[in-house]
Amino acid sequence: MRHLLSAADLDRAQAVEVLDAAARMAATQSREIKKLPTLRGRTVVNLFFEDSTRTRISFETAAKRLSADVINFSAKGSSLSKGESLKDTAQTLQAMGADAVVVRHPASGAPHRLAHAGWVGTSVVNAGDGTHQHPTQALLDAFTIRRHLKADTAHPEAIGNDLDGVTVVIVGDVLHSRVARSNVQLLHTLGARVVIVAPPTLVPVGAHTWPCEIAYDLDQALVDHQPDAVMMLRVQRERMGSGGASAGPGFFPSPLEYTRSYGLDARRLRMLSERAIVLHPGPMNRGLEISAEAADSPRAVILEQVANGVAVRMAVLYLLLAKERETLA
Length: 329
Ligand code: CP
What we know:
Largest sheet: 5 strands, parallel
Number of strands: 9
Strand order of the largest sheet: 7-6-5-8-9
GO biological process, one term: 'de novo' pyrimidine nucleobase biosynthetic process
Pathway: Pyrimidine metabolism; UMP biosynthesis via de novo pathway; (S)-dihydroorotate from bicarbonate: step 2/3
CATH topology of the largest domain: Rossmann fold
Radius of gyration: 20 Å
Distance between the termini: 22 Å
InterPro entries: Asp/Orn_carbamoyltranf_P-bd (IPR006132), Asp/Orn_carbamoylTrfase (IPR006130), Asp/Orn_carbamoylTrfase_sf (IPR036901), Asp_carbamoyltransf (IPR002082), Asp_carbamoyltransf_Asp/Orn-bd (IPR006131)
Binding site for L-aspartate: 82, 178, 234
CATH architecture of the largest domain: 3-Layer(aba) Sandwich
CATH class of the largest domain: Alpha Beta
CATH superfamily of the largest domain: Aspartate/ornithine carbamoyltransferase
Structural class: alpha/beta
Binding site for carbamoyl phosphate: 54-55, 104, 134, 137, 282-283
Bound molecules: phosphoric acid mono(formamide)ester
Shape: globular
Strand content: 5-15%
């Protein structure tokens, strides 16, 4: 693996390889000394042109836990305000010795351009580009689902390879969601059945070609599909114009109606099967797409997703930069 730009870059064997490496990384994180020498002497640049809490900090933590040096770039306070381009910014940071560039950018396709236009010679990891892709989020979501639903209770260490037989319902603002796009692809690759549920105005044109089913009524979908995992999406108000959704006639339904029709609340929690888990990529709009009761319920694995993000990003950096020269201790 040279770059990780899209969930579509991974076939089933590669996706399982990342998840298995992440499981080994997670095991090292319960030790007293969490740090591994694996990437000593390597430099990872976090190039963030959009705000982030979880992804930026977990990539930084992951790189440091592997003993890499980390350079953090954020657009605020940089020479971007003087008109410097993505290409010049990336090349400047590469000149400082980067071995991998982790990039988040508001423009869909920016990491792909960085990797394939010859702008940098390093590995490029997509940490979220526009509404396009967020592959490490999908990997950490798959990792979390696999841990909960595919573990053999008699042999907890023997986790099933993939997500065959698992049904995941993804709910909400699919239109603006790179998390949804990445998850639909990766979960399908891993064998899960995926159903997206959204108001018609928040379903992208072309979604009917994705490897998933589409539904518009959440209550009906919960009854019909009996999901093993429900993934709530953040309503991305910052990507909606003042009038509403960018590809539809406004933010329809209204926030109140959205919550009533598509929010996960105590009543809908009770509709789920005993083993079903609730995911959210964060940050959450509590009271809009998810109630506090649902977010804080024992079914919610939202903070586990955050913790698993470190292990998954360690695995990705390891596979990109160190696999050929190191073995995990
Ligand atoms: N899930 C996610 O990408 O969160 P951040 O925007 O905080 O990185």
